[in-house]
Amino acid sequence: MRLSAILVLLLINVTSTFAQNNAVSANEAYVKVITERANKIVASLKIDNASKAEKVSAIVRDQYSNLNDVYAARDLAIKVIKEKYTEKSVREVALAKENANTEVKTVKLHHEYLRKLAKHLNAQQIEGIKDGMTYGVLPLTFKAYQEEILTLTDEQKKQILTWLTEAREKAMDAESSDKKHAMFGKYKGKINNYLSAEGYDLKKEGIAWQKRIEAAKTNH
Question: Residue 65 has what DSSP assignment?
Fold first, then answer.
């Protein structure tokens, strides 16, 4: 074998090993991140039993990992579709099918995840897990609506909470922080349209709310 051929083979082996090491390193870093995230969420529940807390943390961590696997597979499939189909209409049908397939997988994971949590946690604790995975947007937003509009009826509060809860269920499965917040943004738009239809002037209510906040600061 010529020296040039040997050098090429050596270069290929070195490049391959470097890529593999990088992949392993990236995976280890990701596992560390989701493990710390899961531990932080579970710590907020203040579970007395250390063994139970560890099991729950593992379930939360694995959910993040499983969702990541689904989205990674989707991204790869989308890349293949875009390379394979040049005709726009055919490509769009294939992409829609892949996105629908991804949603089926995430919904299945969602239900399995909640069943696993229910073996170790009560309903209130599971709520805590859900809020932890979605940055507490539901309780914060629900509180904000009630502080902004002081005359909300019980029925209106119930409807707002129903939509925020639906948003949280979907946001739990979203692939990034931005997409989790975007899901809540979508539902907040729905809530705002509902409140406008109920006769509220949201701009006026918002201004009055800010005045109350400023007045409270002044009084303190």
Answer: H
